Structures are given as C-alpha cells and as structure tokens.
Amino acid sequence: MREEKAGKRKPNIVFLIADDHRFDGIGAYGNEVVRTPVLDDLAAKGVRFSSMYTMGGQTAALCVPSRASLLTGTNIFKATVSEKEVMLGQTENQQLWELNPTLPTLPEVYRRDGYKTFGIGKWHNGKASYARSFAGGANVFFGGMGDHIGLPVHDYDPSGIFHADDAKPSDKFSTELFADSAVDFIQQHTDEEPFFLYVAFTAPHDPRTPPQAYLDQYPLEGIPLPGNYMTEHPFDNGELSVRDECLASFPRKPDEIRQHLAEYYSMITHMDEQIGRIVQALQDSNQDEHTIIVYTADHGIALGQHGLLGKQNLYEHSLHIPLIMRGPGLQVGAEVRGLGCQMDIYPTLCELTQTPTNPQVEGRSLVPLLEGSEDAARKSIFGAYKNVQRMVSDGRWKLIRYFRCGEVGSNLTQLFNLQTDPWELSNVAEDPAGEDHLKRLEEELLAWQVAVKDPIKLVSERSQG
Description:
Family: Belongs to the sulfatase family.
Order of helices and strands: EHEEHHHHEHEEEHEHHEHEEEHHEEEEHH
CATH superfamily of the largest domain: Alkaline Phosphatase, subunit A
CATH class of the largest domain: Alpha Beta
Pfam families: Sulfatase
Number of strands: 16
CATH topology of the largest domain: Alkaline Phosphatase, subunit A
Largest sheet: 9 strands, mixed
Strand content: 15-25%
Number of helices: 14
Cofactor: Ca(2+)
Distance between the termini: 47 Å
Protein name: Sulfatase-like hydrolase/transferase
Organism: Paenibacillus plantarum
Number of domains: 2
C-alpha cells in the first residue's frame, strides 16, 4: 500500500467530522432505520472501521477534548492543557478549550508539508490553533453549539484574530452552509499543490431542527426504542443534571425519546445529502480519484439508552464512533475490526500520505490493520469523564469505575461482557466468574491513569494489593 504511493502526487484529503454522530447512526453500521445512502456508498467503496473509540474528557462539552485529541494525536489530558493544569484538576477552566500550543495539529503538519489547508465550520479549540492550522477558510464557527440558522460565522481572517464582533449570523441551515463552502473551495482549487479540506458540521447536535421534509421521513411509529432504553439511569453517575440530560422529561417517556431519535435521524439524513454534494464536486472537478475522504465524529450520544440523553458517560453509545475512509491506497469494501482510538486517525493519515508527523503523537497508525496485521490492533482502549468516571475495555470485557465527587456520583464498578451483552445491561462485577477479568482490567486502568497523569487514581482493594 505505502509503496504504491512512491513517486506519485500526494492525495488530497477531505476530512468530514460530525457532532454527536454515534457509530450505529449509519446504515453501513447496521442501522436499518436511518437513511444514509452517501455514507453507505463511501463505506462500500472504502474502509469501514468498526471499533473506533473516543476517550471522553474533563469537561461536559465533550466535543472540546475529543476534537483536541483527534487534532493533536494525543490523550485528552495532554491535548488541551499543561501537566500542571491537569494535576490541579481544573475541570471547567476555559483553558481546557484551547489546544496545547506545543503540539502541531493535523492540518498544521499538512500545511508544513506543502498542502493548502482550508477550514470550514465548527472549531471549538481556540482561535490561535485555527490560525496556525489553516491557510484559508470560510464560514468558521468558534463555539460549541447554536441554532442551525443564524449561527454566528466568521470569514477567514489572515491575521488570526477573528474579532467576535466580526461574526455574522448565517441565513442558511448550517449543514448546507458548510457544504456550500466546501463545494466552492473544491471547484475553485486549480493549484498543483494538494489540499487538506476540513469540514466540521454542527449536525446532528441539538437543537435538532431539521428541515421539515427530512423529519417527515421518520414518523414516530417507525422509530424503535433502543434495546437498553430505560426510564431513568439506575444510579447517580455523577452527571445526571447536566444540560444535555435536561432536554427531555424525567422519567423518560417512550414517545418523547422516539421524537428525539426521529429528529436525530432527520439531521443525519440531511447531512448525508449535503456530503453527497461535496463528493459530487470532487467527481465533477476530476479530483475524486486522488482524494482521500475521511468521515468520523467527535463522539456519540445516548438519546434514551440507559435512561440518559447526553454523551457525558462512558457507555458504548457515547464513546463508540464511526470512521470511514475512501480513496487511493485504500481497500474497497473492507471492514477493519481491530480496536482503535480517535487519536490514531492523525498518524494513519500521515502514513497514508507519507507526510512527516509530530514525534509527540501518541496515536498508533491504523495502516498495519489496513494491511491485515491483526496483531497491530490496540489490546485495550481507555476513557474518562471529569473526576467521576473511568473506563477500560479490551473489546470484549469492559470495566467502568465510578467515583463519588462532593455531593454527586457513586463509588461502584460495572463489568460488562460486550460479546454477550452489547447493550451493557448486565453488570457482572460481583460475579465470581468475572473476577479475573475485573482484576486484570483494574490493573490496566490504573497503569493507564499513571501513564497519562490522570488527576484521579483508581482506588480499590485489588489495586492496593
């Protein structure tokens, strides 16, 4: 694969990232309700990674640490703040929204390698990192969320200052606006240099207000409840009253959850159609055959699973993300099942394009997995949420450890066998048959926490022994 690229023009990259799009919200990932023909086609003509995970974060605005990890190729504790700040446990400090200035971003390394970098849409990691990442841009949104019509967006500012007063409210739905900018860039790009086009959608994040024609495609009677639907979460996980959880009534009502899912799927279908316009622009400009298209998301979301609505948890629905890649040097119709982490995308693209990477990158290239080396897969992946939740999984066995912090949270452990219990309904932490797995995972989690300088440490009788 890598040898085939030698001596050829480097491929373009179109990097598409959605907000809140969980792994099973795509037809190609097994969802029989949502309509995603464009993403399904990209998966059919490229590679679908079925076991990619984000790592959580130290703030309720999880798009910040997850995008920071993706953009720097490092763990969530290193990606945004200094070691001192992490150790102080400043979980809501605004500095957590800024990328670590010592770490070159993914588009920045491409910019240094001669690519024309162009950023469109949401950037929730500070203006300074955007300025050093992109040589151009359009309709840039510095923030976490907002109305999809009237979103305050900036023109590209060569000075990198992006004064707040210069933002203008959009007159189009955000998904269409960002797709328009991407199509314009592709059509106007006539330079010999390859490009790195970064398009960050605010969909399907709430407020989920899809155009009515798309909502009409999802009548409530056709929306099944998830297999782990609950009216309420069975215990205090440390974050039951965050904004996201208050977007539906307590206890959860079946039709209300169906309405949330219908709006979610509608937003996804609308976005899928707009992505189709971007793909068509590549084809019309004869750039499709030498462009790698990447589709992923910052994290997932619950929407009724486990009685939760948001993503401030470490269950599969919130950590498990889609990753689709299609383009030169990639197989057609392949599925990669080995465990991977969001920060692995950075070195993977660099290896595919023979682009020098940053030596501080902690992610592992997925190229060996693409070439059939199953031994190259991660043995375990890890996650954190604020100072109240920690997680480790080897793909089959998964441990979630909860901590009481002040007046919230619980001191308890969950152990799931994902092979027999993919909905994470049966906690076997007290089952003697799972004792060896519990001990092993606790030790792995503690070792990871020490390695990444986690501000909290796993405390248990086993880890003390």
